[in-house]
Design brief:
- The chain has 8 helices and no strands.
- It has 181 residues and is mainly alpha-helical.
- The chain has one domain.
- Helix 5 packs antiparallel against helix 6 and helix 6 crosses helix 8.
- The termini are far apart.
Length: 181
């Protein structure tokens, strides 16, 4: 997949056509991961999420694709934004406003069993990213992208120890931010 991504990034349309099934499978995997965190009656279907993310990804003409981990990171960011925008649109459409609760169970023990509001999580992650950009990126890649510590280190270009340290900091920061929101 990495070779095809690089060729696609260089404008090779044949690589794009060959990579399409691989990209679709990767997007389905990410969508399935995201949708497990959503409530059961969510109005956005996984297939629609995949298609919307794919359309936004193919518009990424200026990305210098390096590897699968980078691709997953970009795709995860796009899917998160789609879901946040969807949640905001639904909340805005409700009479009297208010944010719709979105069940989001975090894989890590920090948030285990919690019910989080996706918009609140997004806003907290945005604040974290403003304060500590690398920590915010690591959260996005690990939590939303499902990447391993090694893959994150490759994308962010830091050591495994730095990824683990930033992940620990980010979990504690987000836990505190969400607890007080």
């Amino acid at each position: 997949m990495t070779d095809l991504l690089v060729e696609w990034g260089q404008g090779n349309e044949a690589a794009h056509a060959e990579m399409l099934p691989l990209v679709y499978a990767e997007l389905r995997r990410l969508a399935a991961r995201y949708m497990t965190f959503e409530r059961g009656d969510h109005t956005l279907q996984p297939t629609a999420l995949v298609h919307e993310a794919y359309l936004r990804l193919v518009d990424q003409r200026r990305v210098d694709w390096r590897n699968r981990a980078q691709f997953v990171g970009v795709a995860a960011m796009i899917m998160r934004r789609i879901l946040v925008n969807h949640a905001r649109d639904r909340a805005a459409a409700k009479r009297g406003g208010g944010v719709e609760r979105v069940s989001l169970t975090v894989a890590e023990e920090t948030f285990a069993g919690s019910e989080l509001d996706l918009v609140s999580l997004h806003e907290a992650l945005e604040r974290l990213t403003t304060l500590e950009p690398r920590a915010g990126r690591i959260v996005e890649l690990k939590f939303f992208g499902g990447l391993t510590t090694e893959e994150i280190g490759e994308v962010v270009q830091v050591s495994r120890a730095t990824v683990e340290r930033d992940w620990s900091f980010a979990r504690a920061w987000l836990y505190d931010a969400l607890k007080h929101s």
